[in-house]
From TrEMBL:
<dbReference type="Pfam" id="PF09594">
    <property type="entry name" value="GT87"/>
</dbReference>
<feature type="region of interest" description="Disordered">
    <location>
        <begin position="407"/>
        <end position="428"/>
    </location>
</feature>
<keyword id="KW-0812">Transmembrane</keyword>
<dbReference type="GO" id="GO:0016758">
    <property type="term" value="F:hexosyltransferase activity"/>
</dbReference>
<feature type="transmembrane region" description="Helical">
    <location>
        <begin position="323"/>
        <end position="349"/>
    </location>
</feature>
<dbReference type="InterPro" id="IPR018584">
    <property type="entry name" value="GT87"/>
</dbReference>
<comment type="similarity">
    <text>Belongs to the glycosyltransferase 87 family.</text>
</comment>
<feature type="transmembrane region" description="Helical">
    <location>
        <begin position="270"/>
        <end position="291"/>
    </location>
</feature>
<feature type="transmembrane region" description="Helical">
    <location>
        <begin position="235"/>
        <end position="263"/>
    </location>
</feature>
<feature type="transmembrane region" description="Helical">
    <location>
        <begin position="195"/>
        <end position="223"/>
    </location>
</feature>
<feature type="transmembrane region" description="Helical">
    <location>
        <begin position="164"/>
        <end position="183"/>
    </location>
</feature>
<protein>
    <submittedName>
        <fullName>Uncharacterized protein DUF2029</fullName>
    </submittedName>
</protein>
<feature type="transmembrane region" description="Helical">
    <location>
        <begin position="361"/>
        <end position="378"/>
    </location>
</feature>
<keyword id="KW-1133">Transmembrane helix</keyword>
<keyword id="KW-0472">Membrane</keyword>
<keyword id="KW-1003">Cell membrane</keyword>
<dbReference type="GO" id="GO:0005886">
    <property type="term" value="C:plasma membrane"/>
</dbReference>
Amino acid sequence: MPLRVAKAGVRLDLVLYLGFAVFAGVTAAGSEFYGYRIWGNCALVAYLVAAALAGRVALRGRGSRWLPVWLSTLVGTIAPLLYLSFRRDPGYTWGPWPWSFPSQPEVWVVERAARAWLADGTPYLDLNTLGRAPHADDYTPYGPSMSVFGLPRALFGDHPLTDARVAFLVVTAGALLLAWHLLGRPTVPVPAALLVVASPLTALTLTVAGDDVAVAALVVLAAALAYRDTRWSPWWTGALCAVLVTMKLTALPAAAVLAVGLLAHRGLRAAAAFLVALLAVGTAVVLPVLLVDAGAFVEHVVKFPVGLGRASSPASSPLPGHLLAGLGAAGHAAALVLLGLAACAVAAWVALRPPRTAADALARTAIGLGAAIALAPATRWGYLVYPVVLLGSALAFAAAERVRVGTGESAPGSRSGVDSRTGDPPPR
């Protein structure tokens, strides 16, 4: 029998689906990118049907709020992703015509990096061997761990299912499901699910690229691990954060927030274990690449993203920092000052009021990354998927924590007789 639902909640769902549909329609009609337009057409249908289903539930006062979520995810994310993966020609040559791109260049760059890693021991091209001036697509602005997502195509050849986006989707789903399991498989609020899996930023990014959503999902998993009261959770959290940071430096603020949270929640020993694992795994990933060609690593991973590379980054969405930087040297300096002030403010907030729960850690990471994305001189709209996914996850974590407190349950993973600050059993 259909369950009765709160009308206020389902009305919010309806408003969100209609807003999502507007975004999808504008993208379908106005984007210069082929992949974006394919996504926009699929997502427009998905969100309108989801809105109709939500409206039906609102009128009847009963029904499933989850059916529109899963339908919009299937039709608005998985269907266009698979279509574009099958549409991709193995002999496709990248050119200056964005309206023909079956994926964003990030996909091809990650796959190329995996092939180079296997062949040369480093995922980074030596730009001096190109015989021409380098351009943005010659760069691999990711850490070595990101190349793992290109290994299916490097090892098994060109096939729709070896597309890096499929690997990003699988890891994203796996990380979110594992985080949910670590929380004790709580009921997830529908608005949280809408932000994490059904929002246009998540769906579009997974369809045309996927890397940023995978990183965000792994940050969620790291937060779930960090606040488990078990002996090995700080070690696993540190190891996972090392993988994240060596995928994309965007994850560095998340690692810092979780380190402070572990110190506040579990004490010095847990924080030390986190740092040891972080440094050990990070060194194991990066050192072999540095030994092969340290200069290429610095050029691709450090210089290019901050605008000091031999080619300029194409990241130029009209967010406040970029608009300020466009006013000239003074505007660029002002953007950097505002970015620095925002970073100091968030750092002080985290240090003076450490995150005591995983939800707190995710919310503060989301706010910090959101401020950085808005104020950075070179940025993209798509990066906003980080705060959206992390805020949605924070809502889900907070709901689980409220239920646990209300029922008097211990945190998932806690063990009777174990000191939650050190992970040690009591003395005998």
